[in-house]
Amino acid sequence: MKIWRNLLATDLYITDTKSPETAAALKRTIEALMDRGAIVRNLENLGERALPYKMSAHSQQHRKAGYFLVDFYAPTTTIESIMEHLSRDVDVIRPNVVKHPLTQEVKECGGIVPFPVEEKLYSAKKRK
Amino acid sequence: MAAVIASCCSLGKKLTHCIMAAVCLPNSRTHLVLWRRDCLQYKQVTGNEDLPLLSQFVSPFTGCIYGRHITGLYGKKQKEITKVIKRAQIMGFMPLTYKDPAYLKDPKVCNIKYWE
Fold it and tell me: What ipTM does this complex have?
């Protein structure tokens, strides 16, 4: 099982973040995840913000949304069905599933390697 | 260097752009900034933490991602940053055609001069 990170931009009406509609939508989403064999690890609310650009989903246009972040374990084969289900949900504007950043190794960058200018560019080769 | 400039000027369109690039070639790349450009560690996707860092590599006027000659990053890092910026834009964390106004006053990492 791999760790995935799910980022949802969910439709939010102009009422508070604690409205029962958002709660119901979130519950639906997480239940859908668990139905497909995912183990939900964490759910975070990244706040309600104005979207950076106008998004249209399900024949509606949105300018504001609540952002939610779900960490879960799931087998790689079920991601497709999860994404398909989420794209059908009316309350979810933009679902995204991404590999969890903590699973990726930290590669040390060696910085800028000095480039041997004379060797590569000014080689004394015979040109025909 | 002269040969390069001449060939760029002959194209005609990108005249000023090429001259700017020649002028802005950095001798010392030590920009002591909140985030040192030389040692960018691994990137995270969720823009909520890294958005200010990513917005430093984006033009405030057009929102386009700066090229290698402006950022001064080497191959892999430039590619990584481009990918992460595109990801954040598509997922709805970062704006496409402008720079998020909250990050307009961040320290300048890239070698770009704006008309004032």
Answer: 0.74
- The full length of chain B comes to 116
CB contacts < 8 Å between A and B, how many? Answer: 55
Least confident of A21-35, A56-70, A99-113, B59-73: A99-113
Calculate the alpha carbon distances from A19 to A9, A15, B60, B108 in Å. 16, 7, 36, 41
Tell which of A96, A98, A115 to mutate to test the B interface (max B CBs under 10 Å).
A96
A41 backbone dihedrals φ, ψ, rounded to 5°:
-100, -40
* DSSP assignments along B17-64, one per residue: HHHHHHHT--S------SS-GGG--PPPS-HHHHHHHHHTTB-TTT-P
Q: A88: phi > 0 → left, psi -120 to 50 → alpha, else beta; which?
A: alpha
